[in-house]
Amino acid sequence: MPKPNKTKVRRRSRGQVFVKTLLILLATFVMAVAAFVVLFTAVIELTPFDAAKLEQITNARPTVVYARDGSPFLTITGPNGTYLPYEKIPKVLQDAIVATEDHNFWDSSSIDLRGLFRAAFVDLWTGRLAQGGSTIQEQLAKIVYLNDQKTFSRKLKQIILGVQINRYFTKQEILAMYLNHVFLGENCIGVEQAAMRYFGIDLAKNPNALTLTQAALLAGLPQAPSAYDPILHPAAALKRRNEVLENMAKYGYITEAQAKAAEKQGLGLSPHVLANAWDQQPLFTQFLLDYAERNGISSESILQGGLKVYTTVDPAVQNAINRVFWDDAYPNDFPPPIHGHQVQGAAVFIDPKTGGILGAAGSTRDGWTPGGYDRVYAYSSPGSSIKPILEYAPAIESGKFTPNSILNNKSHDFGGGYIPRNEPGEPPTATLHDALVHSYNVASVWLLQQIGIQTGVDFAERMGLQFTAGDRQHLGIAIGGMEKGVYPLQMAQAYSAFANGGVMEPAHLITKIVNDQGQVIYQFQGTPKRVMSVHTAAVMTSIMEDVVREGTGVMAQIPGWPVAGKTGTVQFDSALTGPHPDWVRNVWFDGYTPNLVGSVYLGYDQRDDAYHLNWYPYPGNYVASIWRDIARQVLAGQTPQQYSFMSAATGSGSGSVSRAPVANLAAKWDANIGGVDLTWRSPMNGQVNFQVSRATIALPNTGTAPGAAPGDTSAASGLGTSGEGTVAGGGMGLGDLGASAGNTSSAGGTGTGSGGPAATSGAFDATPQIIGVTSQEMYQDVDVLPGATYLYSVQAIDPSTGDTVGDPATIQFQVPGMPAPSTSAGTGGTNPNAGTAPGAGTNPNAGTAPGAGMNSNAGTTPGAGTNPNAGASPGTATPGMGPAGTGTSPSGAFPGTTAAPSGTGPGTGTQPGSGAQPVGGTQPVGGTQPGSGAQPGGGTQPVGGTQPGGGTQPGTGTQPVGGAQPGGGAQPGGGTQPGTGTAPSASASSNGTSPGSGWGGSAP
């Protein structure tokens, strides 16, 4: 068989395949590049470019920051609002910037392809946009036209804008615009600010003052202004500066020798504080820029100008913070320095209903530097201030615990050798309420153990706190033992949920930003979140009010306002403190009212235990006082409110309810004291005083002052003008009306007062006068005229400052009129009961019915016995057992120290005043009944006869005691001052037969 033909197949070599493939790829690449160039060119031509916007930046445009009410609060501009022209920019600085940022700048291209491809490779390899690769034109485009977000689309826009900038402007113009607006750290925009900040050099006035090393330092900052900050990080700044010097030598701007010589020099800093916002609001400006950076807003864009930044800041709150943290207006709120270092701190306040940040401070003045450390964001252990968030609120929320639940407070091993300790003397068990109020550590750890660490952590995380994996492994977090800790803004936001009925509004400062084209380039969007029930918020608020009322937070009290909160104290590790267990690292107070939440932190930046607070006096007092002094300024003049959710939680209603500091003011006549009783109620949370004022609305038309009838008076009392006197019986009035007050005294106590005006018809001063100050919810005004009408006002007063709290309460009251005096006369007595003011003991101590005790065991008809007119010693009943009545006004027109003549032989009746009923009835016998008794008129020892107030047979008249013809004894009513009357008889003569005819004379 013939063999089949075999065709040879020529195989292509691998080399040929490779070459062909390479040619195809190359051709594809060339076509792709060509297509890209065409497309890119088209995009550049079609992309709108606003050259005018770039031209405008040569004029200083401020950024205006607005307060929550829409009013301008802060203006941020450059120093003197100047723009440094190209010819005033030092050549050495231009060279340093170009050598470092874009050494091809002076070439025609505006795209650094080599740098761009390098950046693209790194970005794709790492999966993130980290590399720069930008020309100076592109960096300028980012500053003026774009935000700081790192996205591929933004990078493409930046390249396109860079090309367009290069087409519209000269290189000199581009470089000048860049150097005037590049961010160089320490909140410096442009080289002019940076030269002033770091070296104190004013380039506008002296552009040639900048040295090679100084220019190199500035040129090294744009890449990483914070990392190379020469004030905060001098070593890193020095290394970066030397790199710039090497670049300058590499690209021929300086020689190698110059570079080496310059590298041997130091930084040569001379820091200066910049003007503008740092002068207006240094603490707020610092916080504003930090907040912006942490919320995706470039602080550079704010500082570069041309923006309208709308915020939630309340000028009243921020200025109150400034006075405490910056102006040193409250020096006692801060402990003294240690080793020359002032303790540092932070404060931030929030509106709980909106989450708006009202004001903040990240340091005291002593530790402040522009762009420096902002402690509002500084992590630290919260101490016991975390207890309400981590264990107590979750326990209440679980439904398994109430404020009355019993917690184990006995120190023991909780596992792994962890044995928390209490302060000496603390009880082995405590209610949940008391454990939080008094901040018992062991009980708190035990409570977290009962609810579970995970339950507590989950609850706290809902409130915005963060925990590490290590935190979740140990019970020490119950009392603040966290690895990373918390910062003040977190704590303020968390506590705002308690103040807002369990709903947490996201804390925020900037609501929106509008550029100079009117475009909104930033808008805050937050969603409120319920983190606990209304019931839990109400219970926790009630307990934390007691923390302030009686627990560790008493220094935070604000009169009239319900304040709730918790202190936190962080001690050094026992291994560090050694013999100093009372050394404290830092302290907190987190507190709130219905409309204000604040977190205050104090502590040293130094970690060395040599920098510490002392346990005594209690360190929490400092932060609580700072919180109080800020909040008190903010709330001054506002009507105190209560938490709307407290009533809603119990089903009694809802809505914000104003709490008047003085409520239910009432006035009534008190016959026992002869004055007006004022009473009221106050829902005050803290200590508060009440200032009582009185205005005279109308006087009785009597023609003369009561008690001013002529009579035989002693020099001690006198008539007419008002004077100073001692009020008998501990009365609370301000002296007598119509006549000068004599220097009388009483067994019941003394009180100084001034006499009032005579009660003349139609002439009086209606101006309100302060008549007293008291801490009680009552006041007694005994300095009144019968028949007069008064307008009383009660105003709450802060006892520490004297400031008024809320509005006063007022009430009008008319004093009862005075009855006509009795003219009935007795028959005995050589010279009985004479004088304008009949009958007053040396210490009269007389009430409305003198001689009647406060609980006098008086009968309905005093002095009227079963056989009132019988027997040698009628009426053997014992006089009133109560103490003698207190004199309303023992001097002046009322019974004073009248030296009434005595009878020939003052009565010596066995038991003056007859009847089975004891002395001092409902209407004590007076007037016509001659005064008598063991101690007539309530005096310690009435002036006069051996046994005043009695006759041989007192009370033997036809009528029983108190009748129309009283007392027919041989010497009735012969005491020197027997019987006193509230309004003594205006007899026509100082000597008469009428014994003691005053209204309500001394009881028999």
UniProtKB/TrEMBL annotation:
It catalyses: Preferential cleavage: (Ac)2-L-Lys-D-Ala-|-D-Ala. Also transpeptidation of peptidyl-alanyl moieties that are N-acyl substituents of D-alanine; [GlcNAc-(1->4)-Mur2Ac(oyl-L-Ala-gamma-D-Glu-L-Lys-D-Ala-D-Ala)](n)-di-trans,octa-cis-undecaprenyl diphosphate + beta-D-GlcNAc-(1->4)-Mur2Ac(oyl-L-Ala-gamma-D-Glu-L-Lys-D-Ala-D-Ala)-di-trans,octa-cis-undecaprenyl diphosphate = [GlcNAc-(1->4)-Mur2Ac(oyl-L-Ala-gamma-D-Glu-L-Lys-D-Ala-D-Ala)](n+1)-di-trans,octa-cis-undecaprenyl diphosphate + di-trans,octa-cis-undecaprenyl diphosphate + H(+). One of its GO terms (cellular component) is outer membrane-bounded periplasmic space. GO terms for biological process: cell wall organization; peptidoglycan biosynthetic process; proteolysis; regulation of cell shape. SUPFAM superfamilies: beta-lactamase/transpeptidase-like, Lysozyme-like. Residues 854-869 have a biased composition (Polar residues). Residues 78-248 form the Glycosyl transferase family domain. The keyword Transmembrane helix applies. It holds the Pfam family Transpeptidase. GO terms for molecular function: penicillin binding; peptidoglycan glycosyltransferase activity; serine-type D-Ala-D-Ala carboxypeptidase activity. Signal peptide: none annotated. Residues 820-853, 870-903, 913-927, 979-994 have a biased composition (Low complexity). Residues 701-731, 803-1004 are annotated as: Disordered. The keyword Cell wall biogenesis/degradation applies. Residues 345-630 form the Penicillin-binding protein transpeptidase domain. Residues 720-731, 928-954, 964-978, 995-1004 have a biased composition (Gly residues). The chain crosses the membrane at residues 21-44. In the N-terminal section; belongs to the glycosyltransferase 51 family. In the C-terminal section; belongs to the transpeptidase family. This is Uncharacterized protein.
